[in-house]
Amino acid sequence: MGFFSAVDKLASAGAGSRMPAKGAAQVKASAANANHLNRLAVTAYPGSGAPRAKQVQAAAELERAVGKKQAKKLTEQALQRVGARPKGLRRWLG
Question: How many angstroms separate the CA atoms of 72 and 59, rounded?
């Protein structure tokens, strides 16, 4: 993930960084959380290559972390990243 590695590089920058240490820590924590949620979403969708028990576990953890609606949205985005067509109106409008 190019964006998150760039954020990580920015967050761990040394003396040349203009960002305060507190802000850098927040950005780094946010990127780590997004990476974790993305890994869960990719594991949770059917056809990901993960065993069924692991898919169910990832889906439950994702739902616990962000809620049912956002979990469904993240899983749908993960499916689209690997080539699936969008559902609903996004199929024609998005």
Answer: 9
